[in-house]
Automatic annotation (TrEMBL):
GO cellular component, one term: cytosol
Pfam family, one: GAF_2
Family: Belongs to the free Met sulfoxide reductase family.
Matches recorded under InterPro entries: GAF (IPR003018), GAF-like_dom_sf (IPR029016), Phosphatase_reg/MetRdx (IPR051330)
Domain GAF stretches: 32-158
Any one GO molecular-function label of the UniProt entry: L-methionine-(R)-S-oxide reductase activity
Name used for this protein in its record: Diguanylate cyclase
Species of origin: Niastella vici
Length: 158
């Protein structure tokens, strides 16, 4: 599939419900990990217009920057460091309503005010994380957690 993404107005839930089947169609039948991660972040950025969205993948016991959309970002994050490294260490989604109140937050962009990080878990192991940043305070909640976790579940690791 390679055609224009259909973008909707409406509630957060309506936007996820529109974009998720399109993401599934984009990744279906494509085995290449980088191609799929690139299309997932492009589709989400086009629908939501967040400040930054991207993947970090675990490589040699660090998180290393992978496909993203938005301003340039830090390339490597150690386990337990920042929101991403904490999500990796705890193997759980972390919602940060105000990044200034998260001890050890790594500021890749001074414009970022809130953030959500979702781990990608396969066979009990964290393979990477999906990180989303917003210029608005408290931009993310349980709805984002639910749908972003569904999105990372469709990623196929060879
Ligand atoms: N804020 C993240 C670092 C990655 S950037 O936001 C793209 C963190 O604290 O882990």
């Amino acid at each position: 599939m390679a055609e224009d993404l259909s973008i909707v107005q409406g509630t957060k839930e309506e936007k996820y419900k529109s974009v998720i089947p399109q993401i599934k169609a984009l990744v279906e039948g494509e085995p290449d990990l980088v191609a799929n991660l690139a299309n997932i972040v492009a589709a989400l950025m086009e629908q939501f217009g967040w400040l930054w969205i991207g993947f970090y993948l675990v490589k040699e016991n660090q998180l290393v920057l992978a496909p993203f959309q938005g301003p340039v970002a830090c390339t490597r994050i150690r386990k337990g460091k920042g929101v991403c490294g904490t999500s990796w260490e705890k193997a759980q989604t972390i919602i940060v309503p105000d990044v200034e109140k998260f001890p050890g937050h790594i500021a890749c962009s001074s414009k970022s005010r809130s953030e959500i990080v979702v781990p990608i878990i396969r066979d009990g192991k964290v393979m990477g994380v999906l990180d989303v940043d917003s210029e608005a305070l408290a931009a993310f909640n349980e709805i984002d957690k639910q749908f972003l976790e569904e999105i990372v579940d469709c990623i196929i690791f060879e």
